[in-house]
Design brief:
The complex is a heterodimer of chains A (766) and B (239).
Chain A: E1 3-4, E2 10-11, H1 14-24, H2 26-40, H3 62-74, E3 79-85, H4 92-106, E4 111-115, E5 121-126, E6 129-134, H5 143-155, E7 170-177, H6 183-196, E8 202-206, H7 208-242, H8 245-268, H9 280-304, H10 309-336, H11 344-365, H12 367-374, H13 391-405, H14 407-425, E9 429-430, H15 443-454, E10 459-466, H16 472-486, E11 491-495, H17 497-508, H18 522-532, H19 537-541, E12 550-557, H20 562-580, E13 586-591, H21 592-625, H22 629-653, E14 656-657, H23 664-688, H24 693-720, H25 728-756
Parallel strand pairs in A: 9-14
Antiparallel strand pairs in A: 1-2, 3-7, 3-8, 4-7, 5-6, 10-12, 10-13, 11-12
Chain B: H1 2-16, H2 19-30, E1 34-44, E2 50-60, E3 64-71, E4 79-84, E5 87-92, E6 97-102, H3 117-121, E7 129-130, E8 135-139, E9 142-150, E10 156-162, E11 167-174, E12 180-192, E13 195-205, E14 210-221, H4 232-237
Antiparallel strand pairs in B: 1-2, 1-14, 2-3, 3-4, 4-5, 5-6, 7-9, 8-9, 9-10, 10-11, 11-12, 12-13, 13-14
The chains are: A alpha+beta (766), B alpha+beta (239).
C-alpha cells in the first residue's frame, strides 16, 4: 500500500510499484489485456438465458423433491395455459378450432399431453353400459345437440371454470410439457401454432413455462437494447466531464473489457443468464467505470501540475490505487454478501459481480494507465482552470466549507431523515410473485388475470401421497384432505384419483348420483382401476403410479402473490399433518406456489443477514486500511443513510422486495461505500499536507467532490436507463439503484463530510 | 451348382410373393380354431416398477376372447369378454356385476399393460392391407419378409415375417409421423399340430418407455370350445 504525501508526491507501495511498471511497459500491459480478452470472448457465445423460477431455489428445498417426484412419476406439471376468448365456445367453429389447436399442440416436439374440452376423457354410466370416451367425442352440428352439450358441460363442475368459463365465452387448453425438455422452444412453437389459429378467437398464453419464456425473451432483448444506451449515457457523462477522448474512452473501454472477461467466464462455467444475472452488465458498466474515472482524473491533475505522461501515470496509480482498491474491495464485499442468500441465481450474481468488479479494478490500474502513458497530448492548464479554480471544484469546495460550518445541523438533519426513512422502510414487504415481473396491462399480466378469475388459477399446488394408495383408509384420508383443501381461500379445482374413483363408481352404478363416492373395499378399488386401464394407462398415470404406491393431488390457486400463498401454505401444512397423522401414507406439497413461497422465505430470511455482513465487512476493511475504527464507523454513516433512504422510499411508494430488488441493500452498500473511501482517502492526503478545519473540508470536497458527483451521475443515469425495460421488475430495480446513487453521494458529501469535521487536526507525515 | 440354383429359385420365388400372400401364409401356420392358456403378464413401467398378473385366456377365432384374472388377489375373478370389436363386457367380483364397456376411448390398454385388447386377441393380422410390396430382408441372420401394412383405421404397421416358417417375428406400430410407437416381438414358437404359436410376446411402448411380457403356459389348441362358452354366466364362474 501507499503512504500519501502532499500535492501528489507519494512513496511507492505495492500499487505505486504497479504504476511504475505500467508506466515503464505500457505495451506489455495492453498486450496482456488483449490476450485475455481474445481468450475469454468466445465463451460469450455460450451464454443462454434461463427464467425458470424453480431453478432459483436452493438444492434440497422440500418443494423441489415433490416437483421431482411429479416429474418422474406423473410426467411433470409444467403446463402452458392457452386461453381462447370467443363469443361462444359451444359454436361448431370454435369447437373445431379447439380440436385443431389441441391436435396441433399435441404434435409439437416436447409436448407431453394437451387437455381441453375436445381431448379430455370421461367415464360415464348409462343403464348397464359404462361409457369411456372423450367429453366431446365429435363436434355436433345441429343446434339441439350443441345446446345439450353446452348444458351438460356447464353443469359439470369438473369442466365449468376448469376448461370452459362459466359464461361459455372462453376455453382453456392445458398443454403439459415433457419434463427436462427445452421448454422455451416448445412454448415458442405453441405461440406459433396459436398465431396460425388466430381465427379461433383471442388467444393468450399463461402458465409458468409461458411466463418464464416471456421473461427470458424480454430480458434478452432488454439486455441487447439497454446496454448500449447505458454506455451512451456513460459516454455523454464522461464527455461533459473530461471533454477529452481518453477521459471518455478509457474508463468505458476498461469496463467493457471487464464485462467481456466476466461474461466470458459466465459462459465458460455455463452459468445461465437469469432475471438476476441480467442486471450484471449495467451494474458492472456503471460501477466499474468509476475506477477508471478516478485514475484519469488524477492523471489529468498530475499532468496539469507539469508531470510527463509516464510519471503522471506512476503518481496517479500510486495515489488513487489505494482508494480505488478500497472502493473495489468494499463494493466486492457488498456484492459478495449476496452469496449468503440461498437463491442460486443471486449467488451466481454475487460471484460474477465480484469477479467483474475485480477485473474492472485490475484494468483501471493497468489498461487505463497503460494507454495514458502513451498519450502525448498536453493537458491544458488554463489559468482559470487550475485545480481548485475549476468551477465544479470551486462549487464543491464551497459546499465543503458550508458543511464544515453547519456540521451539527447537517448531522441532525441526516439523523432525522434516517429515522423518517426507517419508519417508512418498516412498511416494505417481500413479494416474489413472478407475474409482477411484467408491466400492468401487458399480455402476460392480462392472461394471468383471466386464468385466475375464470379458470380457477394459474398456479397449481402439487401434493404427492406415498404409501398403499389402494388401501381404503388411505383413499378416505385423501378424500378428507381434499375437502379440507377446498375450504382454504383461493384453493380451487382440487382433483386426484379419489375423484376418478368416485366418478367410476357412479358410472358403474348406472350414473346414480348417490354412488359418487369411494368404493368401499380394496378389491373394488383395484378392480375399478383395472377397468380404467381401458381408457389408456396414460389417463391413470396422471393420478397414480402403476404400482399404486404414489398418488398425486392437484389444486389450483387463484392468486399469485407470495403473501397469499404463505397464508394458504400454512393452513395446507396443518391440514396435511392432521389428515395423514397416524397413517401409513405420507404426503408432501410442492408446485409453483410453493416455489414462489420458497423464494419469498429465502429472501426474507437471508436479506438482512447479507446486508449486515456487508456492513461489518465494510467497517473492518475501512478500519484496517485506514487504521482507524472511528473512520470505519464514520464510513457506515452514509451507507446507513443510503439504506434507510432506499428502503424508506420503497416503503413509501409501496414497492416490494423481489428476487432482483433483494440485492438492493447489499448493492447500495457496495456502491455507496466507494464515495466514503475516496473522501476519506483524499481527506487523509490533505491532512498529511497539513491542512485542517474548514480549509481541510474545502480542499477535500473541492478535489474529490466532482469525481463523486460525476460518478453518481454516471451510475445513476446509467441505471435510470433500465426504466425503459419491458419488465417491471428491471424497471423498478433501475429506478431504485439510480435513486440510491443520489442518496450515497449526498450521504458522503454531506453526512460523512460533517461527521469527519469533528476531528480534523493536521496529520503530518512521519 | 445345384444348391446355388435351388437357392436362386427360392430367392426368386420369395421375391415374387405379395404382402397378402405372405399374410395368408402367416395366418395358415398360426391358425387355430380355439386356444386356451394361462398367461403370465409382467408389466414394467418406465420407472422399472414391475407388476405381475396371471390370467386364464380362452379364445375362439379372432373375435371371441374371455380373460379371467387369477392373480393378484384383489383382481382375482375379474373377467373380460369380447365377442366382437364393438362388444366388450367386464365382470367385477367386488360389485358382482357385469357391465358392457363402450365408447371411443376403449381399447387403449389392457389391465395396465402395453397391450390393447385387440393386440391380445388378434394375432392373425386380419383387416390389414398392403401399402408397399413385401421386401426380402435379413433379420438377426434369418431371411425375413418386411411388410408395410395399414389396418382398417388407417394405422400403419411394419411386420417382419420369418421366411422359412412364415412366422411373425416382430411388429412395429407406426405413428402419424412414420416413427415406431410400439414394438411387439414374438418368440419361442411352439408347434401344436399344424399350428405354430408364440408363447412369449413382448410389447414395448416406445413413447412411454414401458414394456409388457406375456408368457403362455398350458397352451391347448383346438379343444372344441363352443360359442356359448362366451356368456355372462361363464364370466361370473371365472371367480
Amino acid at each position: 500500500m501507499n503512504n500519501y504525501s502532499p500535492n501528489g508526491g507519494y512513496r511507492a507501495g505495492l500499487l505505486g510499484r504497479c504504476g511504475a511498471q505500467v508506466a515503464r511497459r505500457p505495451l506489455l500491459f495492453l498486450a496482456g489485456a488483449l490476450v485475455v480478452t481474445l481468450a475469454l470472448a468466445p465463451f460469450i457465445l455460450r451464454l443462454r438465458a434461463e427464467a425458470d423460477v424453480s431453478k432459483m431455489l436452493p438444492e434440497g428445498d422440500p418443494s423441489l423433491r415433490v416437483m421431482a417426484l411429479v416429474d418422474s412419476e406423473f410426467g411433470g406439471s409444467d403446463e402452458v395455459a392457452v386461453v381462447v376468448e370467443c363469443r361462444d365456445v359451444f359454436s361448431p367453429a370454435t369447437l373445431h378450432a379447439l380440436d385443431s389447436l389441441s391436435a396441433a399442440f399435441a404434435a409439437l416436439p416436447g409436448m407431453a399431453e394437451v387437455q381441453g374440452l375436445t381431448t379430455l376423457q370421461d367415464v360415464r354410466g348409462q343403464g348397464d353400459d359404462v361409457i369411456i370416451s372423450k367429453v366431446i367425442d365429435s363436434v355436433p352440428s345441429d343446434p339441439a345437440r350443441l345446446a345439450a352439450l353446452r348444458s351438460d358441460v356447464l353443469a359439470d363442475s369438473r369442466y365449468r371454470g376448469t376448461l370452459v368459463s362459466a359464461d361459455g365465452t372462453a376455453a382453456l387448453l392445458l398443454a403439459r410439457l415433457v419434463p427436462g425438455g427445452d421448454k422455451a422452444k416448445t412454448v415458442a412453437a405453441v405461440e406459433q401454432v396459436a398465431r396460425e389459429h388466430a381465427g379461433a378467437g383471442r388467444i393468450s398464453l399463461s402458465g409458468s413455462p409461458a411466463l418464464m419464456k416471456f421473461v427470458r425473451d424480454w430480458m434478452t432483448s432488454d439486455m441487447l437494447k439497454l446496454l448500449p444506451v447505458v454506455m451512451l449515457v456513460l459516454v455523454l457523462t464522461l464527455l461533459l466531464t473530461f471533454r477529452t477522448w481518453y477521459g471518455v474512452l478509457l474508463p468505458l473501454g476498461a469496463v467493457l473489457i471487464a464485462l467481456v472477461w466476466t461474461l466470458g467466464l459466465v459462459g465458460l462455467f455455463r452459468q445461465p443468464i437469469t432475471i438476476v444475472m441480467v442486471v450484471l452488465p449495467p451494474v458492472l458498466v456503471s460501477v466499474g467505470s468509476a475506477y477508471g474515472i478516478h485514475v484519469v482524473e488524477r492523471w489529468e491533475h498530475e499532468r496539469r501540475l507539469g508531470r510527463d505522461p509516464r510519471s503522471a501515470v506512476e503518481v496517479a496509480v500510486g495515489n488513487t490505487g489505494l482508494p480505488v482498491f478500497l472502493a473495489m474491495a468494499t463494493t466486492a464485499v457488498g456484492f459478495g454478501s449476496n452469496f449468503l442468500m440461498k437463491i442460486a441465481s443471486i449467488r451466481a450474481f454475487s460471484v460474477f459481480s465480484v469477479v467483474g468488479i475485480a477485473f474492472s479494478f485490475v484494468l483501471a490500474l493497468t489498461f487505463v494507465p497503460a494507454v495514458l502513458a502513451l498519450v502525448r497530448r498536453d493537458v491544458k492548464n488554463r489559468p482559470d482552470e487550475a485545480e481548485h479554480g475549476r468551477r465544479r471544484n470551486r462549487w464543491c469546495a464551497d459546499w465543503g466549507g458550508w458543511v464544515w460550518r453547519h456540521r451539527g445541523a447537517v448531522l441532525l438533519a441526516g439523523a432525522a431523515l434516517i429515522l423518517l426513512a426507517l419508519a417508512a422502510a418498516l412498511r416494505v414487504r417481500t413479494e416474489t410473485d413472478f407475474v409482477r415481473y411484467f408491466k400492468p396491462g401487458s399480455q402476460p399480466t392480462r392472461a394471468a388475470r383471466i386464468v385466475n378469475e375464470r379458470f380457477g388459477g394459474m398456479m397449481q399446488f402439487e401434493f404427492v401421497v406415498e404409501g398403499d394408495i389402494v388401501d381404503p383408509d388411505a383413499l378416505a384420508r385423501m378424500a378428507r384432505f381434499q375437502v379440507g383443501l377446498e375450504s382454504i381461500p383461493h384453493v380451487t379445482k382440487v382433483y386426484s384419483i379419489v375423484n376418478v374413483l368416485q366418478t367410476t363408481n357412479r358410472a358403474f352404478n348406472g350414473g346414480a348420483p348417490e354412488f359418487e363416492r369411494l368404493p368401499e373395499s380394496r378389491d373394488a378399488t383395484a378392480q375399478y382401476l383395472l377397468l380404467l386401464s381401458f381408457s389408456g394407462s396414460e389417463f391413470l398415470s396422471r393420478f397414480v403410479t402403476s404400482d399404486y404406491r404414489v398418488a398425486r393431488i392437484t389444486a389450483r390457486f387463484d392468486r399469485q402473490e407470495s403473501r397469499e400463498i404463505a397464508v394458504a401454505a400454512e393452513r395446507i401444512r396443518s391440514l396435511m399433518a392432521a389428515s395423514f397423522a397416524g397413517s401409513a401414507v405420507k404426503a408432501g406439497v410442492g408446485g409453483m406456489p410453493m416455489a414462489v413461497l420458497a423464494l419469498h422465505q429465502n429472501i426474507q430470511s437471508s436479506q438482512l443477514g447479507s446486508v449486515i455482513t456487508a456492513l461489518v465487512a465494510v467497517f473492518l476493511l475501512v478500519a484496517v486500511v485506514f487504521r482507524s475504527p472511528r473512520l470505519g464507523f464514520a464510513s457506515l454513516l452514509p451507507i446507513l443513510f443510503t439504506l434507510a433512504a432506499a428502503f424508506g422510499v420503497m416503503g413509501a411508494a409501496g414497492l416490494r422486495v423481489d428476487v432482483v430488488t433483494a440485492m438492493l441493500g447489499s448493492i447500495a452498500v457496495g456502491i455507496g461505500i466507494d464515495y466514503s473511501c475516496h473522501l476519506i482517502a483524499r481527506r487523509r492526503e490533505e491532512q498529511a499536507a497539513g491542512f485542517a478545519g474548514e480549509e481541510l473540508a474545502r480542499r477535500t470536497l473541492g478535489s474529490v467532490g466532482p469525481a463523486i458527483i460525476v460518478n453518481a451521475l454516471a451510475v445513476g443515469l446509467g441505471f435510470s436507463v433500465l426504466i425503459s425495460s419491458s419488465l417491471s421488475i428491471i424497471q423498478q430495480f433501475g429506478l431504485l439503484v439510480a435513486a440510491t446513487m443520489l442518496y450515497s453521494s449526498v450521504g458522503a458529501l454531506a453526512l460523512l463530510a460533517a461527521a469527519l469535521s469533528g476531528r480534523d487536526k493536521p496529520r503530518r507525515q512521519s | 451348382m445345384k444348391q446355388l440354383l435351388a437357392l436362386l429359385l427360392v430367392v426368386n420365388l420369395a421375391a415374387a410373393l405379395t404382402v397378402d400372400e405372405v399374410l395368408d401364409r402367416v395366418r395358415a401356420v398360426t391358425n387355430a380354431n380355439d386356444r386356451q392358456a394361462t398367461a403370465t403378464m409382467t408389466i414394467t413401467d418406465k420407472g422399472n416398477r414391475v407388476q405381475t398378473r396371471t390370467l386364464r385366456t380362452v379364445m375362439k377365432g379372432d373375435d371371441k376372447l374371455m380373460m379371467t384374472f387369477k392373480s393378484p388377489a384383489d383382481l382375482r375373478g375379474v373377467t373380460f369378454l369380447t365377442t366382437s370389436a364393438e362388444n366388450m363386457w367386464i365382470y367385477l367380483p367386488a360389485q358382482s356385476r357385469v357391465r358392457r364397456i363402450s365408447g371411443s376411448a376403449v381399447d387403449q390398454g389392457f389391465g395396465g399393460s402395453d397391450f390393447s385388447f385387440r393386440e391380445i386377441s388378434n394375432l392373425s393380422f386380419a383387416d390389414n392391407s398392403a401399402t408397399q410390396p413385401a421386401e426380402s430382408i435379413d433379420l438377426d441372420g434369418k431371411p425375413a419378409w418386411l411388410l408395410t401394412v395399414k389396418d382398417k383405421d388407417g394405422a400403419s404397421s411394419r411386420i417382419w415375417v420369418e421366411q422359412a416358417r412364415s412366422l411373425p417375428l416382430r411388429v412395429e406400430k407406426l405413428g402419424a409421423d412414420g416413427k415406431a410407437k410400439k414394438r411387439i416381438e414374438f418368440g419361442d414358437f411352439v408347434n401344436r399340430g399344424e399350428s405354430w404359436i408364440p408363447v412369449e410376446i413382448t410389447i414395448h411402448d416406445l413413447s412411454r418407455g414401458s414394456r409388457t411380457e406375456m408368457k403362455l403356459d398350458s397352451l391347448k389348441l383346438n379343444t372344441g370350445v363352443k360359442d356359448n362358452y362366451f356368456t355372462e354366466s361363464n364370466m361370473k364362474k371365472g371367480a
